[in-house]
């Protein structure tokens, strides 16, 4: 396990009443806050281990009310990753996701950024207004993981935050160097012009017609082989307790 501890700035965003504070407090303090008290802005810190690496999480729980909308750009500038939360029993909160995601990309001046889509309150299945497939499809459109959670029953709470840490690490990881072309090939695998011009020196010598009276035919040789195709399979999540799509 690495002893180096990197700090990550995580921001929890979403419409008012979707359970952002309940998720955050359940993750940080391991208890559920039942009463609804609109948040202006609260910050929490927690040390965790993700994939054998120690991480210090600075979690910012934000206001979802419209009157605090002017504060969004300020915390969006400093956040390294975002949990975008909606409640499965509120279609209005789901419809806010695209605007939030676009605002994050605009503030960050980026085509993509580390986010995780969290469908909270999955314990209220009988009140569901947003289908699980809708959340998965939107997350796939954003290129983000999708998780259904319940802050009340602590379902997929830790998974949501650790998934975001993994997304941040992936985003911040240096890009691998470009592949080095072999002397006899370019980067696309085609023969290099300098070697291709001499390729006739290595081709088999054509056979002359037989003088014995028998027909002799050279065995043909192949010039190339086709490439196969692989099918990509996707796993669909099931119920609340198991719905984690990375």
UniProtKB/TrEMBL annotation:
Coiled coil regions, renumbered to chain: none
InterPro entries, alphabetized: P-loop_NTPase, Small_GTP-bd, Small_GTPase, Small_GTPase_Ras-type
Assigned keywords, A-Z: Cell membrane, GTP-binding, Lipoprotein, Membrane, Methylation, Nucleotide-binding, Prenylation
Q: Which GO terms describe its biological process?
A: signal transduction
Question: What is the protein's membrane topology class?
Answer: Lipid-anchor
The GO cellular component terms are: plasma membrane
Q: In which compartments does the protein localize?
A: Cell membrane
Q: Which GO terms describe its molecular function?
A: GTP binding; GTPase activity
Q: Does the keyword Cell membrane apply?
A: yes
**Pfam families (UniProt xref):** Ras (PF00071)
Q: Where is this region: Disordered?
A: 172-216
Top-rank taxon, per record: Eukaryota
Q: Does the keyword Nucleotide-binding apply?
A: yes
Q: What family name appears in the similarity comment?
A: Belongs to the small GTPase superfamily. Ras family.
Q: What is this protein called?
A: Ras-domain-containing protein
Name its species: Dacryopinax primogenitus (strain DJM 731) (Brown rot fungus)
């Amino acid at each position: 396990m690495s002893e180096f501890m990197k700090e990550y700035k995580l921001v929890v965003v979403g419409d008012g009443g979707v359970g952002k504070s309940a998720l955050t407090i359940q993750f940080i303090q391991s208890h559920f806050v039942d009463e609804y008290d609109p948040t202006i802005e609260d910050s929490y810190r927690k040390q965790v281990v993700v994939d054998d690496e120690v991480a210090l999480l600075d979690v910012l729980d934000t206001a979802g009310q419209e009157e605090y909308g002017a504060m969004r750009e300020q915390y969006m500038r400093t956040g390294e990753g975002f949990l975008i939360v909606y409640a499965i029993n509120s279609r209005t909160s789901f419809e806010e996701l695209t605007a939030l995601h676009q605002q994050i990309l605009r503030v960050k001046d980026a085509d993509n950024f580390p986010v995780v889509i969290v469908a909270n309150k999955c314990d209220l299945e009988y009140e569901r207004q947003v289908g699980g497939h809708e959340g998965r499809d939107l997350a796939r459109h954003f290129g983000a993981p999708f998780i259904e959670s319940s802050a009340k029953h602590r379902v997929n709470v830790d998974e949501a935050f650790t998934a975001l840490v993994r997304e941040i690490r992936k985003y911040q990881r240096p890009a691998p160097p470009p592949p080095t072309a072999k002397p006899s090939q370019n980067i696309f695998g085609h023969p290099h012009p300098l070697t291709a011009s001499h390729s006739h020196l290595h081709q088999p010598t054509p056979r002359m017609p037989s003088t014995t009276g028998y027909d002799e035919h050279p065995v043909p040789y192949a010039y190339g082989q086709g490439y196969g195709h692989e099918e990509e399979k996707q796993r669909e999540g099931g119920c609340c307790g198991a719905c984690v799509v990375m």
